[in-house]
Please model this.
Amino acid sequence: MRKPFFRPFLISLVLMAACNTAAPEPEEFSSESGNFTVQTPIELEESSQSVETAVGPIEIHTFTAENRNAAYVVAYSDYPAEMVAQTDPEELLNGSRDGAVQNVGGTLISEDQIELDGNPGRALVIDAATEDGEQATVNANLYLFENRLYQVLVVVPKGEEDNVDVEGFLSSFDVE
Model:
């Protein structure tokens, strides 16, 4: 009796497919209150907190998700319109950049001026360590839309950068 030629080939193909689990396809996430959309590989969960600042309390709305390869974050906060009107947008973005670097206890690796729909922004890469001491890279885009500051971030452990579509998440962010 002759052995089927294709059977071993098919079995190995099935095994390869089973072991080669692809990342989930990104799906659009939309926030009506935040007035934004983003393509995310895992569903974002919303939280908010009030933070006391020099200009009074600021409500920070945060949308987060994480898997074993990355953490995905979109956050926004509204500053008093009169304060923003009296401040250079670049100064606000500089302060946000400095705050982001300080909050993660990191080192700014690179910074580029960017924009979204004519609104100023910054693209940042920050080396940081997680609470567990694990080394990570934070890729962040900051945008100032009138008096609203958006922060879009992907945090990836060192060595996992090739396994995460950082640019896909960051570049999919849009304000409606």
Remarks:
- The longest strand covers residues 56-66.
- The chain is about 25% helix and 45% strand.
- The CA atoms of residues 22 and 160 lie 15 Å apart.
- Residues 25-175 form a domain with the Protein Transport Mog1p; Chain A fold (CATH 3.40.1000.10).
